[in-house]
Every structure is written in C-alpha cells, then in structure tokens.
Amino acid sequence: MDFKTKDEHIAFLEARVESLEQALERRSRIHRMIQRQVCSDDLLVISRIESGLPPLPDQAYDIDLWPETTDLTSADVEQTMTDLWRSLQPFEEPSDS
After folding, report:
1. What distance in Å separates the CA atoms of residue 82 and residue 28, rounded to the nearest whole number?
2. pLDDT of 87
3. Confidence tier at 79 by pLDDT (50, 70, 90)
4. Helices 40-50 and 6-37 meet at what angle, rounded to 10?
5. How far apart are CA 86 and CA 82, in angstroms?
6. Which of 9, 10, 42, 92 could make a disulfide contact with 38, Cβ separation 3.0–4.6 Å?
7. Where are the domains of the chain?
8. How many helices (H) and strands (E) does the chain have?
9. Please, what is the Cα angle at 51 between 62 and 13, to 5 degrees?
10. Whole-model pTM?
11. DSSP of 70-83, one letter per residue?
12. How many angstroms separate the CA atoms of 35 and 48, rounded?
C-alpha cells in the first residue's frame, strides 16, 4: 500500500492491529467453548491439527485400551513404528486435484 502521509500509515496500522485483536478474541472465545464441550481425546486431535500435526491414529494407542502384557509380536512393531513416525509429520490436507 502506498501512503501519502505518516499519519495515514499509522492509522492503517492501528486499524489493522484492532482488527487482529478482535479476530484473536473471537478465536479464543470459540476455543474456550470447544474446550468445554469436547472430550479430552477430541481436544487432543483438534490441538494437533491446529499445530500442523496429523491426528493420532484412531485410538490405536490409547493407553486405556491396551491389554496389560509385555508380549510383543513382530506384526506389532512395523505398524506401530509407521504410525508413530506418521504422527510426527506435519499435517497436509489432501489436494482435490
């Protein structure tokens, strides 16, 4: 943008800051409502997506669902490692093309 005076530029920046503050207040209000309404597992998924991480695999690694055993099969290792590495990758939405 091309401003004729310093005052116009300052006014523009002040309006921009006010707009961003209002957007942040709206977003914070929505996040507080979501936080009160969803379960902790859903809140974790939402937080991961907003942080650019993919959601965790569907409850596959929820500690409450694990049977108590120290036995490990070779079939568990590869899939577990694949899922764990995938959970560290930034989330990319599929393209429509």
Report:
1. 34
2. 80
3. confident
4. 150
5. 6
6. 42
7. 6-86
8. 3, 0
9. 160
10. 0.47
11. ----HHHHHHHHHH
12. 14
What mean pLDDT comes out for the span 73-90? 76
CB 90 within 8 A of CB 53: yes
37, containing H or E segment: helix 6-37
Residue 62, amino acid: D
Q: How far is CA 97 from CA 8, 25, 45, 52, 94, in A?
A: 43, 35, 26, 21, 9
Q: In Å, what is the CA distance from 66 to each residue of 32, 57, 72, 84?
A: 31, 14, 12, 16
- Please state, rounded to an integer, the average pLDDT across all residues of the chain: 81
CA 78 to CA 87: how far, in whole Å?
14
**Distance of CA 68 to CAs 79, 84, 88, Å?**
19, 20, 26
Cα–Cα distance for residue pair 85/97, rounded to 1 Å? 26
pLDDT at 72: 67
Neighbours of 65 (CB within 10 A): 8
